[in-house]
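lol ok so funny story. i was supposed to be doing the assay writeup but got distracted and ended up predicting the structure for this chain instead. priorities right. anyway since i did it might as well share w the group, maybe its usefull for someone
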Amino acid sequence: MVKHNKFPIGIFDSGVGGTSIWKEIKVLLPQENTIYLSDSKNAPYGDKSKQQIIDLSIKNTEFLIKQNCKIIIVACNTATTNAVKVLREKYDIPFIGIEPAIKTAALQTKTNTIGILATKGTLNSELFEKTSHSINQKIIRKEIIGTGLVELIEDGKLHSKEMTGLLSAYINPLIEENVDCLVLGCTHYPYLIPQIRKLVGNKIQIIDSGQAVARQTKNILEKHLLINTNKEKGVHQFFINKEKNVLEILISDKNDTTTVSKRDF
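and the output, tada:
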């Protein structure tokens, strides 16, 4: 009988941003093996049509299934909000999706005004709209499309003048609007937290869903008896269809057993 619990956790994103989720998985579940798929060639998903996002998500899922992944994390807000329902109907494997944590922000805001920094594809999705209407309608949502942020991160320009300029243009109006919670609605954006913090100081609470996703992954693995009971640290494989230097920088850790492969898919 095949021991499925030793199979890897599959993770995919429209690029390198989902490694922010991978890091949370690795902290909470250090014994789990992982396979990460970075579809950087098609990043960002946020400006694509719903059908394009679904097609890309299916392609990524089938790649990970061929690698014997036991569960798949859709480490992309845009792919989750546009495609995860289709994936769950199409494949007999557990999926973990990611949504902007606006419910958390709605519970924690004191000014009743929250900011949401996300891609166009996420903000315009049916699932995001449904989630937004589930919170207290007295809460004012200030939605900002983070045009250009993903591309700069993918190009290794995390600390560039262009990045500083864009963040100032997006964040400063939120400060003026009395926002006290900022939801990061893209898995690339946690890499911007230090720079955002310089802009907002302690005035605004920054909320991302990485730890919640890791906890949910653990819960689903336990529910399906898929937790890896091995005591050794997990092995991590990364696949990318573009240059791999930015990905290697983001995941670098001498204590990890990782391999990064460039491959067309």
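Strands lie at 9-13, 34-38, 71-74, 95-96, 113-118, 140-145, 181-185, 205-207, 235-240, 257-262. The chain has a mean pLDDT of 93.
back to the writeup now i swear
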